[in-house]
Amino acid sequence: MNRRAESGSPFSPAKWVAFGLAIFGLMTIAVGCSSTSADSRSRSGGTHKALDPTTARSSVTTRRGPALQRPLPAQFSIDEAHRLTPPSQTDQTGIVALARGAEPTRAELAAAQHAENAMSSMAKSPPISMTPRLRADLDAAQLVSAHYPTARDAAAAGYILASRFIPGIGAHWIRWSLVHRRFDAAHPAMLLFDGNGLNAKLAGLSYFVQSLNVPLGFVDGHANWHRHVGLCIVNGRLVAEQVVRRSACDGGNGALIAGRDVWMAHLWTVPGWVNPDGEFATINRALCAGDPLCAGMK
Q: Which position among 8, 51, 55, 57 has the lowest Cβ density within 10 Å, counted as fewest Cβ atoms?
C-alpha cells in the first residue's frame, strides 16, 4: 500500500479551504465578466429584444452606481428603460434641456416633499372661480379628449409611456418636447390613462410646464401646481424620484431633472372621469383601483 493511500489525501484541511476559495474567486470573476458583457449588449441593443412598455414588469433593479431612491411599481427599472424604443430626437433634446443646471439640494428635496404631503392630505380642490380666461382654458382642454381617447392614439401622436399606472392618478404618457413650452391648455405634455395597455382610456390631463415661477395656467381654478424633485430619466422613462446626485442616475448616464423649475398640475374633466372632488384635485378616486390608501383619502 503506497503512502498516499495511507494518508487519505495529499492536501491538509487548510489547503482544501484555500483551494475552495480560489475556485470561488474564479467563478465570481467569470460571473462579473458575463454580467458586464450582457450589460454592454443591452446598452448597444445587441441581443436583447425590445420590450413592450405597456406590459413589461418593473423589477426595480439597478446595474450601476448607488441604489436609486424611492422605487415604485409604476417606475421602470434601468434595464427595462434601456430596452424600450427611444424617444424621438426632439424629445431627447427636450430631456437634455430639462436636465441642465445644478443638482437638486437636500433642502429642495425636503421642501418639495413637504408640499407634496400637504397637497396629498387635502384630496378636494377649492371651488373654482369661473372667469373668461379659465373658461377658455377648460374648453381648450376639453378638446384634447377627442384627440386621444386611447393610449394607442397618444402613441401615434408621439407620446411615450413614462411611468405606469399609479392608483388615483393613472398611467403617464408624455411628450418631453412640450414641457419647455409655455402653458397651453390645448397641448398638455402629459396624458393620464386608466391602465398601461394601448387600449387604456384617457382619464385625465397632466400639465408639466417648465417655468421659474408657478405657471399662470388655470390660476383662477386654484390648480394644484406642484414640483417633483430629482427625477432620474433613462431613455425617456422614469426610473427613480428624489435623486440628488447625477452619479446615482444610471451611473451618470441618465438625465437627472432637478425639478426646481418644472411644475405639474392634474386636470380631471375627461367625460366619464369627471372628479367629484374637483377639477384640480390631487387624485381621482375613480382611478384608485382598490388601493386602500388612495380610496381612503377624505
A: 8
39 and 143, same structural domain? no
Handedness of CA 69, 72, 77, 83 (dihedral sign): negative
Q: Which of 50, 102, 129 is nearest to 246 (CA)?
A: 102
Residue 156: exposure state from Cβ atoms within 10 A (0-12, 13-18, ≥19): exposed
**Rounded Cα gap, residues 255 and 259, in angstroms:** 12
Residues 173-220 have pLDDT tens digits of 999 999 999 999 999 999 999 999 999 999 999 999 999 999 988 977
Burial label for 261, CB within 10 Å (0-12, 13-18, 19+), is: middle
96 lies in the same domain as 32 = no
Domain carrying residue 220 = 78-295
> pTM, whole model, 2 decimals?
0.76
Classify residue 260: in a domain, yes or no.
Answer: yes
Measuring CA to CA, how many Å separate 73 from each of 60, 119, 147, 171, 190?
7, 22, 29, 12, 19
Q: How many domains does the chain have?
A: 2
**Residue 263, in any domain of the structure:** yes
